[in-house]
Amino acid sequence: MRVRLTLRADATAMPSVERFVAAFAAEHLLDRDDQARTLFLLEELITNWLKYGYPERSEPGLAEVALALEGSRLTIKFEDDGAAFDPLAEPPPDLSQPLETRPIGGLGLYLLRGLADEMSYKRSNDRNVIQLVRRVSLRERQ
Fold first, then answer.
1. Residue 98 domain-assigned (yes or no)
2. What is the CATH number of the domain that holds 36?
3. Does 141 fall in a domain?
4. Burial of 42 (0-12, 13-18, 19+ CB in 10 A)
5. pTM (two decimals)
6. DSSP state of 107
7. Is residue 126 part of a domain?
8. Sheet holding 73-80, edge to edge
9. Per-residue pLDDT tens over the stretch 51-83
10. What's the number of domains the chain is made of?
11. pLDDT tens digits for 10-25?
12. How many helices (H) and strands (E) does the chain have?
């Protein structure tokens, strides 16, 4: 079963996603740690979307979040109408350098890659489409 949420690029995006993920987790008995990881992944995607998605547009854009659970495979799909950006094309940060000499940014994408079992990107119909798949744990029904 796939559920979807449409978001505007404004201050209501994250609170809406928090409620959406909480409802999905409750309905599908998603383990609390996996619920938190799902929210972290979406928060990173949304933060980048809000920060970089509309450098030359004044009106807010739209995005869609879709969640699907098949067995223990959770698929997270994030689709937005912002500027083209392929997170898989970005090089990982050089973690061997001292913190104070590293450039700012890139750590969130690095964490996204680390928390996802699979990650893909495509640009389709002037939209960024990022899909993450990860194995999750489910609680027992009571």
1. yes
2. 3.30.565.10
3. no
4. buried
5. 0.85
6. H
7. yes
8. 2-8, 62-70, 73-80, 127-135, 118-124
9. 888 878 777 799 999 999 999 999 999 999 999
10. 1
11. 889 999 999 999 999 9
12. 3, 5
